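Hello,

Following up on my earlier ticket. Below are the two sequence lines again, exactly as submitted.
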Amino acid sequence: MNAISVRALAFVIGLMVLFAIPKLTGNEYVLALGISFAALSVLSGGLNLVYGYTGLLSFAQVGFFGIGSYTAALLVTEQNWSLWSGVAAGGALATAVGMVIGYSSLRLSRHAFAIVSLSFALLCMIVARDWVSLTRGAMGIPGLPAPTINLPGGMRWRIAQPADFYYLLLGFAVFAHALIYGVVTSRLGRAMRAIKLNEPLAQSQGINPLAYKLLAIALSALLAGMVGGLFVFYLTIVDPSIFDFYYTETMLIMVIIGGPGSFWGVLASSAVLTAVPDLLRFTTDLRMVLYGVVLIAAMLLFPGGLGGWLHRRRVARWRQPRVAP
Amino acid sequence: MRPRGRSVDLNFYAQLLLNGIVIGVIYALIAMGLSLIFGVLEIVNFAHGEFYMLGAMCAYFLTVNWGFGYWPAVLIVTAVAISLGCVLYEALLGSLRGESFERSILLTLGLSMVLQNGAVFLFTTTPKMMATGLSYSNIIVGELRLPLSRLYALGLGLAAFAALYLTLYRTRVGKAMRGVAQNRDAALMVGIDPRAVSRLAVAIGIGLSGLAGAALAPVYAVHPLMGFSFVFKAFAIIIIGGLGNVSGAAIAAVMLGILESLVGGFLPLVMVDALAFISMIAVLLLRPQGLFGRGVRV
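Thanks for your patience. The regenerated structure is below:
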C-alpha cells in the first residue's frame, strides 16, 4: 500500500471510531466532550479559513455563532419552524451580517476589518442583553424543546439524548470540515493563500482579493451560524453568554497552537484543547489567564504553531541531500 | 421620567449635554492613547481597556483601603500607568514590527486576557462603589445639578487634553513622535530614535488610560469587566476619527459622548449601545479614511 491509501484508511477508521463512541460507552461526560469538540472544531475551522488561509484576523466568529443560536431558538420556539429551517435561517442571517461587516471594513484595510469584527462581537452581546423585547434580555430563552427531525421514509428522529446530539453535531462537523477541506485544497484555497502571502502579486495575477476575502468570511459565518443553531438545542438555553469572549479566545488559541493555515493541525489542536483543560479541572478564570499566557508565549516564540513546525521539518527533510546507500 | 414644562425641558437638555461632554472627554482620553499608539507603532492595543480598568481598581484601593484622597490617588495612578506603559513596551511591544500587525493584536489580546481574568480571579466581578466625600456633593447652578465628581473628571480630562496637545505640537519630542507616525524610515534617517519615541508613545497612551480610569472611578462602579465595554467604543471612535489621527479621535469621542447622552434621554438603551457601531459602519461606507482623515492609506 502506498502512503496515501494508508492515510485514507486511517482516516476512515478514525471516523468510524468517533461515530461508534456512543455504542462503546454510555458515559455522558465523554459524549459532552465530544459535542463540545464538534462545535468548537467547526468554529476554529472557520476561523482558520478566514485567518489561517486568507490572512484576515476575525473576532466576529462568536457573533455569527450567537446570531445563529438566537435565530434558530426564536424561530423554533415562537414561530414553530422545524429544526433544519431554523438552523438554515440562522446560518443565512449570520452570512448576511458577515457580508455587511466584511464589505464595509475591507474597503479600508484588514486592520479595519479586525477592529470592526471585534466591535461587532461585543455589540452582539450588548444587543442580546439590552433588546429585551426580542431576546428576553439577560435571562435568555430557557427550556428549548428537544427537536424532531423528519427522516426519509416517514421516520421521525427525536433528538433528546446526549447520544442523539452527539451524532447530530458530529455529522454536521464532518460535513463542515469536508466543505472547508474542499475549499482549501481547491483553486479557491490557493487563491486565498496567495492573497495572504502577497496581495498585490495575487492581484497582478488576476485574482480579485475582495471577492475571495468575502467568500471566506461568508463561508465561515454560515458554518458558525449553523453550528450555533444546532448547539443551543443541546444546551437547551440561549442567553447573552453565548456571545461570551471565552469562545473567541478558545478558537484563537486552537488556531494559533494548531498552526494558522494548517487544516489537520487546527483539527488536532481543537481536539486536544477541548479535552485537556476539562480533564485538568481548571476554573474558567484561571484557564483564561493560562490561555492568555499561552497566546503571548506563542506569539513571541513560535508564531507558526504545530502546523508551522511540521511544515518546517518537512522542508528541512526535502533539503537534505539524498545519498545512495 | 421626562420632566414637563419648557424651562424644565431646557434643564433636562442641559443636563444631558453636560453628562455627554463628561463621558465624551473620558472616551477621548482612552481613544487618543489608542490612536497615538496605532499612529506611532502601527499596533492596535487590545489590552488598552484593561489599563483603564486597572487605573480605576488602583484608585479604588488607594482611596478606600489605604485612605488616600482623590487627588493624590489620581496622581499616583497616572504615574504608575506611565511606568507600566514603559514596561509594556520594553517587555512585549518592542520586539514587534509594523508588518506583524496580526501578531501584535494577538499579543495584546493575550495580555488583556491575563489582566482581565486575573482581576476577576483576585477581586471577583462584584462591582465596587468608590464612596468618597465628593460622591454626593453637587454644585447647583440655577436648576442644574452638577455632580462634583463629574466636574472633576471633566477638568482632569481637559487638562490631559491640553498637556497632550502641548507635548505633540510644542516640544521637540512631540515633533519627533509625529515624524515617526508620518514615516518611520524617514524619521530614522534624520536621526530620530524610533524606539525611544515608541516607548514614549506607549507610556503616554497607557498613562492616559489609567488617568481616565482613576478620574471616572467615583462616577461609575468599579469592576474587572469595565474596560471591555469601554474599549469597544474606543475602537469605533478611532475608526470614525481616522486611524492614527489623534485629534480626530478626540473630536469623534466628544461627539459620540454627547450623541449617546442625548439619544439615551429618549430612546431605549439598546440604541445607545448600538450608536457607536452604527456610526462606525456608516463612516466606513461613506468616508473610509475617517471623518478627519486627509486620504486613505493603502
